[in-house]
Amino acid sequence: MKYQKMQIKLDSPLTFLKYFKNEENFFFYNPLKKEFILGAKRLKALTLEESLKDYPYIFSSRTFFNSIRDEKWSGIGNENIAFEYYLVEKQGKQTLYYIKDFVEIENMKVEVCRHSFRCEMDDYNSWEQLFSAAHNAILNKELNKVVISREIKIKCDGSINTESILQNLLKQNANSFIFSYCKDGKNFLGATPEILIQKEKNNVLSYAIAGTVLRSDKEDEHEKKRLLIDTKNRHEHQIVIDSIVNSMKNFTDELVVDETKILVLKNLYHLQTCIHGKNTNRTLLQWVKLMHPTPALGGNPVNKALELIKDHEKHERGLYAAPIGIIDENGDGIFVVGIRSALIEKNIVYAYSGCGIVDKSNCESEYIETTNKLKTIIESL
């Protein structure tokens, strides 16, 4: 089996999604490389043993937990999928990959629209109960940190234009990875700043991202400096660094922990530390299994944190905060974590956000932080 390829010129890669809107498809934008990778029309799901050599890219996703209870998440995730068609945009050049039949994709205008919607945000009492369970476990020395989350239901008055949402996410989140996965009438999409693991030849890299403050309308150097020295946020961030280092150190040479910096997003500042090293004998999917979930998404110690989340969160995480990624024919690629995200089904948007709880956390402050994180999805509507 061999893919053919042809140079094409679309005004927007989103036109590709519009053309294949009735097919299973994915969209992935990497802001570090300024590249788009899209796929449409499922060809096959690959097992872990199958070679990737025959396929330009594989789209892969994992659910946060191995089991799914909520029907709306059924059938989504835990697959490595090859598609019949791919569109790749690198350095301004677009290449269409196809197996047999070339398709003529005409330029179609990607309309940016304003959805009329209502948010159900009356969940503070539930949040208090969830926070108390997490905080008490930390105060009782059962946990060092646990990440708890919210699910917000947004009802739109009419049909939802996912291309418009993605266009807004791209425009409003310059430093984030923009992703979308559509299957069986459901669409999981978002704008995440966080790399779980990246592999290029024998180089592997991960990000620790934890510690957050609200950003004002203008970039505030004073606020950045305060975040860098804030005791509570640095403690939360260090837990994530230590855990990632502990996971990577036994499988890498020359492990390096870079200086902690400030990641600037549209509504928030985060503490961010890059951790990287060299490894030749583990596949990217093996790295994903090793790394997920970091304490930035689950907690520490990980198993006890996951038990608490399972016992006390009332919603299903599904693909939220879970690995989503692209693997090329050489086995290289990148997995991000599906945060600042939402599941769209018919005219309902289920938006998700979470935050890390440590001993100095405050219930109301953390709730406000999750509300600010929800703006990524709400503003895209």
UniProtKB/TrEMBL annotation:
Domain Chorismate-utilising enzyme C-terminal: 125-373
Segments forming a coiled coil: none
Keywords linked to the UniProt accession: Isomerase
Catalytic reactions of this protein: chorismate = isochorismate
Transmembrane spans: none
GO molecular function, one term: isochorismate synthase activity
InterPro entries listed in its UniProt record: ADC_synthase, Chorismate_C, IsoChor_synthase
NCBIfam families for the chain: isochor_syn (TIGR00543)
Family classification: Belongs to the isochorismate synthase family.
Protein name (Swiss-Prot/TrEMBL): isochorismate synthase
